[in-house]
Amino acid sequence: MEHELSPEQARINMWKWQWRRRIAVAQGLYEAELVIRGGRVLNVFTEELIEADVAIDAGVIVGVGSFPLTRTEITLNGQIIAPSFIDAHIHTEASLLWMPRFAEAVVPHGTGLIVTDPHEMANVAGLDGICAMRVAAQGLPLNVRFTAPSCVPASAHESPGAEWPTSDIEEMLGWPETVGLGEMMNFPAVLAGEQDVADIFAAARGHRIDGHSPMMTGVPLTGYIAAGIDSDHESVTLEEAQEKLRNGLMIMIREGSSEKNLHELLPLVNDKTYPRICFASDDRDCHDLAEVGHVDDILRLAISGGLDPIRAIRMATWNAAQYWKLSKLGAVAPGYDANLVILDNLTNLTVEQTLFRGEVVAIDGQLIVDLPEIDVPHELLHTVNLAPVRRSQLQIAAVDARKGIEVIPGQIVTRLIEIEPTTRDDIALSDPTQDLLKTVSIERHHATGRIGIGFTRGFGLSRGAIASTVAHDAHNIIAVGVSDEDILAAVAIVAESQGGLAAVADGEVLGHIPLPIAGLMTYEPLSDVARAYDALRKEVQRLGCTLHDPFGTLAFLSLSVIPEARLTDRGLLDLTTSSHE
User: What topology is assigned to 84-329 in CATH?
Assistant: First the structure.
């Protein structure tokens, strides 16, 4: 009597059959499922273009050469066949798009793999929230790899919505999709050798550990790297990046929406250094994804800045794959996954087609495959739990308003500044003539009623207020404005919609984007969200704002591990001395 095969044995038998078939196809003994003809293959190993066919079978590249036998073919006219692009470090939540919608946005731009650190979701909803993101990533035409968040909250000065014990980190590190420990932001705790951090590093033994060390140099940097840090994406100056590179870190040149470091760091790339450098977007909003792209945009900027195109593409593919130990990804070669892009040329770098595991999934900027329909868990749609906020709670005594935050356009680092705000009855007020605006951070997870108040220079608003539930990393409500009444109105709008972005002036709502998924994201299509985001940004600019991305800048005002000054629900932070004002 024949025994029925177990599912596992059936999978093994199928793998063996496909293995034998690949060998036969590679030798020209059997027809391939797909052959791409007439193109030039970009070889990341030798950094050259080779005129050759690419044969693909069962989602795997079986050969680069001449393959007359095929079931189907794609005929090109000299276009470039390259590996699909890899974003080495990103937080997909920053796009404002739920995972399937994020894939819909980036795959047509040639992205085949992302390494995402979901610490935004972890701060709001913990492991349950990340598990929902994991489920939402399944079945997409995009490889999604995770790093396990290391700092929830980023520091003791922040108030997250969920706990994140080391046991959850250990569980996530056991997932096959998890490639390492996420960015270790709490560098003071690392340098002090604190027990909680020691437990996290012990749990991550054998994994890559992503770094986060803005403006760190000298002895502190040495100690931080000695703890086991492998990479950095936070370099602001060329000298800073050079020191980190010399000390063995993989340097990720970042070009996001609010944090733009490519121009400054590009001179770091030369014949000796380039194998230890790759690209990352970190945070890229929906509007930028729709208008300029993803990794393809970073590559265009690098090429226009003088970087050799083939080398740039290698850095965005093979270098990133090698750093993250991603087997059989990042190259066009036998045995590698057939995750490919077809480019018109090496200057414009327009992505004509994207292939995922041998299937064409996007053509001319449009996704052509259906995405799986997965419901968002109910609990992720109800994460804003705000205590009533009264106007009197937004007042700050003049004597307590001596220091403020100055934002730096195009950067997420800030300056701590001395201020002399306008006062009335010993109460400090916003003053648009000084570009000094009241800023509030309101705890929104547990209805504690805790509010931090300070002043910020650099937004340029002449009237009105803006508010957001996207506020790295704990994602409490952050708002900035000219009048307390408009600040209260903007806060109320984003709270009532269970998350979102809003702009208000003179009591009138000028724009509002609901973000009901954890107060961070929406399931609406990219085109709709990007259009609404652009319209909202323009409304804020009509209020006098001089920033290119006001909501992106606003989102970082609470991130308590970035120098020099921040505002959380616990108050103004002076990070020049690590003291709490």
Answer: TIM Barrel (3.20.20)
